[in-house]
Amino acid sequence: MIDGSYANVLITGGTSGIGAGLAARFLEVGANVLVTGRNQGKLAAMAKRHPGLLTFESDIGRPEDREALANHALNVLPGLNIVINNAGIQRRIALSEDTAPWSERQAEINMLLAGPVHLNALLIPALLDSGQAGAIVNVTSGGAYIPQPFAPVYSACKAALHSYTVTLRHSLRNTPIHVIELIPPAVATGLAGPGNNHGATVDDFCNTVFPQLLRQDLVEVGYGITASDQFEAAKKPYKEMFASFSNRFPTAAYASR
């Protein structure tokens, strides 16, 4: 169990929705929290609501911003031990109707997939050097397991992030860094824009999952359908196959320092 009162937490995409909800709960238990966002006005409003909150303007979809964020986070949170990769966008459009320029589609991929993979790579050495118990939380989606035809690129990126998270956990198994996949179902975050605000409330979701993120015996945290016995049973064969496959083809892993 990680002691939240001593935690130093980085949350990407922390000005609204799940990111803001988790930031508030970490602050309530006494953690030091740094949130990122692309809108300085929203960051300022978030800081005004939560005295003591640290903010940093950053576009997780841009590699240079990720590098600047990693440097800043390690400077203002030298004891950083929890990283929550939450920043996201969702384009709702059928593949057959998507005529947007490639740059728009690439931006979605960059934020949802390249962002977490790159940021983790930048921060893991420092997390290991600290020698303390920590966690990397990658926020995926029920759409990682059951593709959403109305958000095809989003679903594909979340599926890839799920796959990466499984391997990251395996790679960090001999260290004090715990890797958790947070799997929201539909949550009313406004992620998909105006008119697409359905699902569980942010408060209900965050109240349920927050204490589970501090545990070190859980590798996946869901809610509602993504926490159901049916959902877990569907994943079980794939977990068993991964365990068998990874034992058959061993790879180098991170080591504690």
UniProtKB/TrEMBL annotation:
Q: Does the keyword Oxidoreductase apply?
A: yes
Q: Which domain of life is it from?
A: Bacteria
Q: Is Oxidoreductase among this UniProt entry's keywords?
A: yes
Report keywords, A-Z: Oxidoreductase
- Do you know which PROSITE patterns this protein is assigned to? ADH_SHORT
Q: Which residues form the Ketoreductase domain?
A: 7-194
SUPFAM superfamilies from the UniProt entry: NAD(P)-binding Rossmann-fold domains
Name the Gene Ontology molecular function terms of this record: oxidoreductase activity
Q: Sorted alphabetically, which Pfam families does this protein's record hold?
A: adh_short
InterPro entries recorded: KR_dom, NAD(P)-bd_dom_sf, Sc_DH/Rdtase_CS, SDR_fam
Which Gene3D superfamilies does the record cross-reference, listed alphabetically? NAD(P)-binding Rossmann-like Domain
Record GO cellular component, one term: membrane
| Family, as annotated | Belongs to the short-chain dehydrogenases/reductases (SDR) family.
Task: State the protein's name.
Answer: Dehydrogenase protein DltE
